[in-house]
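DUF4239 domain-containing protein
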Amino acid sequence: MTDPDSSDESNGYDRLGGPRLWLLLRLNRWAFTGVILLAVFVVLVAASGLELTPLREIVESQDGIEFLFSAFIGAIITGTSIVVTINQLVLSQELGAVGQQRGRMQEAMGFRRDVESTIEEDASPPEPAAFLFELVDGVHERANELESEMEDERDEELREKVAEYVEETTGNAESVKSDLRDAQFGTFDVIWNALNFNYSRKIYDARKIRADHSDSLSDEANEKVDHVIDTLQLFGPAREHFKTLYFQWELINLSRALLYISVPALTVMALLIMYVDGSALPGTTLGVDNLVWVTSAGFVVGISPFVVFIVYILRIATVAKRTLAMGPFILRESERDEDLG
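Tokens:
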């Protein structure tokens, strides 16, 4: 995974900083799963040191092992079946007749042509990271063209506003482009950098400049502002498309992960029910009853499919929440750093 202390944070253009978002978005899903499971294991083992009824007594008197782990068998089978079925229903949207598939192809090629004509490229790259790189680079170039057009502008307030807008836009674009160079679709890097480019705010700011200084802007300057806005407007659909593909990719990974984990988890549950009772594994290790070690480990294995499900859905839900609105709409107060009037 990419170091969270990347260039985005150092140059001030990281919109997704903070430990909470790093945990929800950037941390490797398997590492996140391991952290949660380890925490549960430590809590269960540590609880044996409290002034509570010893586990071995509970198992001997109430047959606690069978009571606890038999419930996991039904939960794992039912939960895995439901999740995989739901995921397959979502992915089934990709299936369709040849006419539907041809229509999707035509729409995709039409969007590519729109992007190519706007950023003045003969052929846009096929890879998602490279495609977004060229689109952000197009915004960068259009912003520089706008700044060049304003060099002889007599309205000092307008010139300062444009210079500030261009500085923020090019700085954000350079940061995102730098990280997109080595990004590979299938990892979270592509979506992470797409989220770091706040195109909605940039669309609003460009339109605000044009509305507030319509009398001062020349026809050429107005045209340059339009070019910036047009390029930014293409970034939204591109990001949403790749976000959708990433969600489908993650749902496939989630389904495979649950299928891989479920059978070993069920096997462990069966072993604990069949061969472990109150007289098993006498003695202690590190001052803790051996039965506590084994039961705690078994519980962690039993909840592992559920934890894997949680960590995958947390990332998908977090990305979905941060991309609810497409276009010049800003839902988070943190991005409204001035009166939007």
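The first strand starts at residue 284 and ends at 285.
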